[in-house]
Design brief:
Blueprint: H1 2-14, E1 18-24, H2 41-52, H3 69-82, H4 93-104, E2 106-113, E3 119-124, E4 129-130, E5 134-137, E6 140-143, E7 145-150, E8 153-157, E9 160-168, E10 171-179, E11 183-187
Antiparallel strand pairs: 1-2, 2-3, 3-4, 5-6, 7-8, 8-11, 9-10
Protein name: Peptidoglycan binding-like domain-containing protein
Length: about 200
Amino acid sequence: MKKLSKISISLFILSFLFVAVGVQAQTYVFNSNLTIGSTGLDVVALQTFLESQGNLVMPYGVSKGYFGNLTRNALAKYQASSGITPAVGYFGPISRSKVNSVAQNKSTFTLIPASGITTQIKIDYSVCKAETESVSFGLGHTVFKFSGIANGKCNFQYGTEIENPMWNGAMSDSCSVPISIGAKTYEVGNMGVAMNDLQSYCSKI
């Protein structure tokens, strides 16, 4: 009976396995210099980028597309934090190169559990940092950890586990199922990693 229960639990757990597929996010490539008075899609893209970096907050009701003092100040703040000099809010070749590099190093991991629920995690490989470190779905969750950049590579440590609550008599018990426990190193910008290699079964009853 106990053996049968373990098998049932294993089958239950297997139903929640997922894979993580990395796809290159659609990025905007900047080719033009921008300054006070500039308008158009380039400005919209720059403002969107500055928002994503936490340097710009567009006022309520103000549309994107015009390069004014607000955008200039936000760009100067980003330039200063990125070591770009002079940090005066002019979007020239140096700033374009930096922003294009950062944008192209972002990928999106799509988690596809067996339940059919899809969750996306954006990962910035230029700093080896996940914008979302923990994602929950159904009865499980997964956690991504990054240890930083070394020798031009992104050290991506993934100790992914699914936790399924199971009923044990009169109390609810929690059981962790490790998947692909360990550390992997990827080149910056690597776009894929499979995490459906089940290492062990949960035998907690």
